[in-house]
Amino acid sequence: MIYSHFWKSDHMIVQKITLTHPLSRLMMSTTMASMAGQVYSILLPLLVLEVTSSTVAVTIAIAAERATMLLQPLIGPFLDRANWKYVLLFADFARFLCFLLLSIFAVNGQISLLLICIISMCIGFAGQFYQGAQFTAIPHLVADRQLHFANSLESAIFQLTIVIGPSIGGIFLLFFSIHYSLIAVCGLSLLAVWLVLLLPYEQQTTSSRTFSISQYIHELREGFSFIYQQKEIWYTNLISLISNFGIQFLIVLLVIYVNQLTKDPLLLGIVLSSGGIGAILGTSLGFFADRFSTYKQILFAAKVIGGLSIICVGLTDTIWLAACFNMIGTAAAGAVNPIIKTIRQRYTPRHLLGRVQSTSRFITFTLLPVASVCAGLLSEWIGIGLTIVLGGCIASISGFLVWRLPHKI
Asked: Where are the transmembrane segments (predicted)?
């Protein structure tokens, strides 16, 4: 099937984005949902430790939630068939029920590792639907020329919740036990459901198509085929795949590496927080960067600078320099993420948005478990610092693939 090289939504009326704009309501819902997720990510390890007293069990519970990422391509056809508002409602309500069930079992003392893993998988699965539906919703809510702004806003809010979420989790734990803190998470999740209900409903004709296994398989192939044929999306996915592989070396080893530089937990927290601050700054720069440079130039600069910053982290033995370089690297990543999303949305027909996003996320994140294992093995062989440097080199190399992108980007 042949597709247009550029999917335009300029027929939409450009509306000023205010607090009453549907995009603002979507962002408010996303904020509540992300906040609930961030607080839950703090409570989950503590809950598992309380039940099992095993750090291995903690990794199992976290892995159970992350494993749902492998199912991303399979949900793409469902996202393209269903109305995005219904999918958002389903995902938010499903997560609310999971948090509620977990809190009830925890309060009653009927919690187990198996139950936590099952509920975590359900939360992760609902999250995959939510992320895909959110990506699909944005082109329906704003005009084409507002896509970059909308994606930058979404990324900025997400990064903000990463910084604020742990603090809110700490406040909950200050006043409540782990069990009752989960009930507070339910409140945040329920608020997200209510905000989704305020979003406009848009009828989609794609949902009326007859479903069959053969049709489903055809739609899966159609999504993969489109990504490969659309070079703007294919090469940005390859760039992200290579870059994420290298960055994962730093993510896995950063805490251990910084702990070698200082035993002060406050300084450790500063280094980790610098990443969140950098991501917010990078996303904020993304609001304006596209006015002065092309996407191609921004991607190249961000990937090279981000990779070099990782190399510098691995070479430095000063805690403050490590924090600065970490902030620079996350700022580069923060500037890139909205651009990647905008490219996917602009070059994808609406009836393929769900499949393109789900499949692209699968492609770009599928090697992260391998990268984590490689980082662990290499750190034992050549040391943590050199392993981080190697990760930075890999991330930098991804920048040169940017020049394979079409000139019009």
From this structure: 42-64, 84-105, 111-130, 156-176, 182-201, 238-260, 266-288, 319-340, 361-378, 384-403
